[in-house]
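Inputs:
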Amino acid sequence: MSAAATPVRDPAHQVPVLEVRGLTRYFGGLAAVKDVDLQVPEGAIFGVIGPNGAGKTTLFSMVTGSLAPSAGRVFFRGRDVTGLKAFQRVRLGITRTHQIVRPFRSLTVIENVELATRYGRRPPGTAAEARRRAMEILEFVGLGAQAGLPASVLPVGQQKLLELARALATAPDLLLCDEICGGLTDAETREVMDLLRRIRASGTTILYIEHDMRAVMSVCDRIAVLNFGEKLAEGSPEEIQRNPAVIEAYLGRGAAGVDSDA
Amino acid sequence: MTAAPTGTRTHPPRVTAARDLAAAAVLVAVLAVLPWTEWGNLRLLFTTLIWTTCSIAWNLVGGYAGQVSFGFAVFYGIGAYTAAVLITEAHVNPYLAFAGAALAAAAASLLVGIPTFRLRGPYFAIATIGINEAVRVVMNNMEAVGAASGYRVNEMVGGQRAPFVMAEHYLSMVVIFAVALLVSILVARSRFGLALTAIRDDEDAAADIGINAFQHKLAAHALAAALVGAAGGAYARYAAFIDPGGVFNFNNSVSILLMPVIGGLATVWGPIIGGAVYGIVQEELVARFSQIHLGLYGTLLILAILFEPGGVVGLMRRVWRALTGRRVQGGPVPARGVKA
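Outputs:
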């Protein structure tokens, strides 16, 4: 059942930024994630899709370290980080955004981001430098005007951007984005897609969970499909769209042949 | 913040500690000169400063970091016993004894914190209740320091029993209070203080930006315990007699928690206001109406939680807003008690 029987190496022969081997997590008797192998190459925007409950967020939590796997290993640039806690992985360069926004509500928008710069991978020397960097990141995601507001008063769309800003502030090498477009308008989604491309262009590898198929297909270089905790398929967006098993998992048997508009 | 005429752009306000430090300096200076004036009841002020110091300390852990502890009497008691033994048995200078009391309490806070900070919300609170009672029972049976019958503090100066000088006890407590206030002001706007606030808001999200929540909670707890321990030491020397039923009393733990809640959690001045209210009420009312004070705190607590969860400081800020139409940065956090 292991998809790693014939490992598909990236042609660049580099050590992948992220590699998970046989990653498994049980909740009671239920396998939320079962024997998943992934290799995320440097500089990719790597999509993880799948129906609700497919185990995408559980997979993320094991990669960032907030959830211990029942079995399997996580490698970051070839180093086994399975035993490290979330805060330790942040300092190596692994950070995430949350599907359901989790701002620090008692702090202002800029304090949220400033704190992340100061505890992240490249902490600035002074408080003033941290503030300057935080402001740059807020301008980058388009929250410059909201810097002084309490984080709790932002509308959801802006809280999603704050999630992204706070994650970026830790100077990640690998950024995990969990459904960052959920609840956004089409225009906002396009803006976020543009941000992701720019983040990738600045050298950060992105692992990206998303329900919005159009968003995933437009931005990802490579996509893995999870279904009932197992990896169903992996390939380029075109390959995934043509894959009968994927179409079946999403739309049910007999739906293959439905055209996609991505 | 400059009053920008128009535009939605709100510049991030840079709240510095300078104003708080200036206010603290004035307060401490006034307290320090009181013994040379005819004003002020030094006994009352001494006990009020003890309570206020404990209140400031608890606020670091319970207010900023949001870890509601019912076990601070443990550190008060350990500080009291450490200073008492150092002064009586080892003839250590009282100020060094207070420092020793602070260290011993901080060390004890690690023993308490390492297992309990793995718990969250109500489970942490319940664990601290258990520890408080367990320590009191152990001390009740500790023969070396007099067990339940207590321990007499004997301070010797040049072969003579040291005379009791109220002003000196009082000034020693002003020093400890000043240190607590300084620590509180510095923590409030520091990276450390912001991280504690982040941990209170969302511990997992804090971990996701690289904050070691466990280590931060332990550090805040140790800092708080040291301050409470020093206050306990000053009390032991002043009272000249301590017993487990007094210093380790669970009521002390509850009182230490009540003061910052009444005054305003996660603010610099809330715990001081709460401590002052408590200290004065405790001394003035308890003497006359021995049972009424518990009812009074209960009423204050219910009023605070129902109508002004930000405590007295929150109420003052609300009045200020109503009068001026301006917001004050860094408001107190609502006291919602123990959250899961």
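Remarks. Residues 1-10, 257-262 of chain A have pLDDT under 50 and may be disordered. The interface with chain B takes residues 64, 66, 85-87, 90-91, 95-96, 98, 102-108, 110-112, 114-116, 118-121, 127, 131, 135, 144-149, 166-167, 169-170 of chain A (CB under 8 Å).
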